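Hello again, I could really use a second opinion on something today. Take your time with it, there's no hurry, and the full record follows here:

___
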Amino acid sequence: MEERIGPDAWRERYAHPCDWAQDFTPLAMTDMFADSVARFGDRALVDFLGREYTYRQIQAEARRFAAGLQSLGLRKGDRIGLYLPNVPMYLSAYFGGLMAGLTLVNFSPLYTAAELEAQVADSGTRLLVTLDVRSLLPVAEQVLRDSPLEWLVVGSLVTQLPFWKGVGMRLFQPRQVMPVPADADMLKWQDLLLDRALEPVAIDPLKDIALVQYTGGTTGTPKGAMLSHQNLTANARQIEAIDPHAHARDVIVGVLPFFHVFANACVLNRTVYDGGMMAILPRFSAGQTLATLQRVKATAMPGVPTMYQAMLDHPAMGRTDFSSLFTCISGGAPLPGPVKTRFEKASGAKLVEGYGLTETAGVTSTNPFDGRELPGSIGHPLPGTDLRLLDKDDPARDALPGEPGELAVAGPQVMLGYWNRPEVAAYAFVEREGKRWLRTGDIATIDEDGYVRIVDRSKDMIAVSGFKVFPSQVERVLLGHPAVREVAVLGVPDSYHGEVPRAFMVTDPAAHADAEEIASWANARLGKHEHVDRVILLPSLPKTMVGKLDRRALRVQVGLTSA
């Protein structure tokens, strides 16, 4: 067994379908985009509900937006925020901001005014881009009034839709859109698109921050990961390098939200690099996703396990033509084995599980697209990525051979640090052998064949009479019960053991499951210290917008902690 796993070891031991010699030369996002436009300018980059936008069209609008930003006096390194769902305007704002030399900050469209205001203030965001829809504009207006934000730029959803969909929204959903107030610090998107030359901006791909990406905050206060241009372009190249279908027809369903690092890496940046097309949807709906997948003859779709489960449950699943689909990538949460098996059987496509972090610009490892998979593992590291296991109690040492340890990552996709939090960044990294190793906080094992398996989050471990219990191991057993659809195991206080595991779950309504029966069934298959004290049946488990289980929200919901 190897406690440190690097690309040379993988190249020697596995026939991984990628270019192991790729050196990931420093590359700015602006140069990557310009090169793709030069090669694929007349190709469709975006399909938005049936309306297509070419690479050249997105570039032209991005340039005009960059000129508008410079006209406001925004200069290299200033931060602008994107408070948007998946719409074509997102790409123009994204690449336009980068062309102007600015640093982008992504904000979730589900944020409350308080959440958005806190991150705007923390990041020093000067300008915010949003839409004229009722779910976004009032929140953005409040933040403009109550924070240091200087400008609000508001785009029109209707003008981005296919013609007849836009007419339908005007006629039948007029209350969904709002007029933009006449105010000096509130600008219409179209008014900021200027036809003037850009002031040149020199970008250092290794040092200049392209994106401040806030962590999800499901286990603590969100922190802004500083991702350089090189972090983003390297990860796009790493993802493309392991794809056996790269350079063939490339059409990806983009239903993961762009504001999240998973979509930023696997949908947006990787597709632009490869010259593909994204069929984007503003939110996830199983029926609409299946219809889009069939309409555009998609070749790939990244998603989270709950998305695949929802599609399997939808009546259109059996009627959908999946003949074009090669590969689906699951991330954000562990992929249950039954979901993988059922989806692959129903679609004929490969569903592989990968792993990544906000701090690694997206993806760190994945099971091979072509080759042996190990269910429940996160597979092998991407090209150029090193992994090692650190001692759980002393990160200055490696874990003992055969023992679980804290997974650490080194590679070109690893962040520069945390925005305005040098003390947190100092804790997050260890220096070993001339490399900065990012401590992931995830406890992992590496088997004799080199496959990596995440055991659990170190913060989620449950201490039962001195024994460490990994919630994911208990959850894996519970998911084996035929009635269990989703489950989360939390540690709850216990006067004798200190803590004990308790299971919160969603069951199949048709199964008429009994909580005590499920607890007894599971405890018969668990170690004594892993026994759940109770099973609590819930109608749903709280999740983030990406579909990832929100453990912090669950703890608040069930009264284990305060909001």
Remarks:
- The first helix runs from residue 7 to 13.
- Residues 4-24+228-456 form a domain with the Rossmann fold fold (CATH 3.40.50.12780).
- The chain is about 30% helix and 25% strand.
- The radius of gyration is 23 Å.
